[in-house]
Amino acid sequence: MTIDYARNVIRRSRLIMPANVPRFVEKAFLRNADAIVLDLEDSVPDSEKIATRERIRELLPVAGKGGSDVLVRVNHTADLLLGDLEAAIWPGIDGVMLPKVESAGEVLRVEEHISTLEQKRGIRSGHVKIGIIIETAKGMLRLEEIACASARVDSLTLGAEDFSADCGIELGPETYQGMLIPRMNVLIAARACGKIPMGLMGSIATYSDADQLVKNAALAYRHGFLGASCIHPDNVEMLNQAFSPTEEDLAYAHQVIEVFEESIARGRASTKLEGKMIDIPHYEKAKLILDRANKIAQLEEKKKRSREAAIGGL
């Protein structure tokens, strides 16, 4: 069965934690991120990558005890990828983040290896998902085939920093329009294939500028993105709020549903609200907003219960 992850999975915030710093991972469950990423890639020095991945299995339950999904970002290199997957695919993992993807074949090879490890280690078949990160011009050119390569792929992200370096596009307000094109390509491909479109209208590197991060996240949400990664715990709630419907959104959605259903009862499939036409697309969008809010509330309750249980057990 094909899953529309964009409609059924909430992933507003992914908190990236360097897996070689255990004290960061130990506190990650308190941050209320929708997902915690144990990073083996960019935040881990080359000299520590092998030793760090050997600790991933013991870190999985530590990161997951607050109810967040637990992901591992692997190194997508010939010398490290398979070893990273071997170290990461254990009970307690929910997905891997695969950076620098440039073809559907790469996705399928990772999927095959994950399937083997699931079977070997008693993990439900298909449980471990793949989050795709597009970071090169080659990957962008093959975006559609990559996005739809596997039912395991649950999200699509533009790695803006690496992509800008690969293409020579500076990241900044003066190049917003240039970077908007690849960002929207990622979003459209994700939506077409039922994946979660993730990303900011800016760089996650500007984590210390709270006002700018909130603006970038809110703008991304208005463009159709449903979440983003962050590298500092202080950014988590900013993302959670920015990628959630506001009280005003919910109130308006309720009004749209009410007036439209009243119109349908009168035999008409269009009406107006606050001087604007309301028809089927507006009605369907309003239902999606309310459904997303309900799923967010359920996830928040799950995380709250898990955190309370974890704190009580300390």
TrEMBL record:
Residue intervals of the HpcH/HpaI aldolase/citrate lyase domain: 13-233
GO molecular-function term, one example from the UniProt record: magnesium ion binding
Binding-site list for substrate: 73, 135
InterPro entries: Aldolase/citrate-lyase_domain (IPR005000), Citrate_lyase_beta/mcl1/mcl2 (IPR011206), Pyrv/PenolPyrv_kinase-like_dom (IPR015813), Pyrv_kinase-like_dom_sf (IPR040442)
Residues annotated as binding Mg(2+): 135, 162
GO biological process terms, semicolon-separated: oxaloacetate metabolic process
Keywords of this entry: Lyase, Magnesium, Metal-binding
Cofactor list: Mg(2+)
Pfam family, one: HpcH_HpaI
Source domain of life: Bacteria
Protein name listed in UniProt: Citryl-CoA lyase
Species of the source: Brevibacillus panacihumi W25
Lineage start: Bacteria, Bacillati, Bacillota, Bacilli, Bacillales
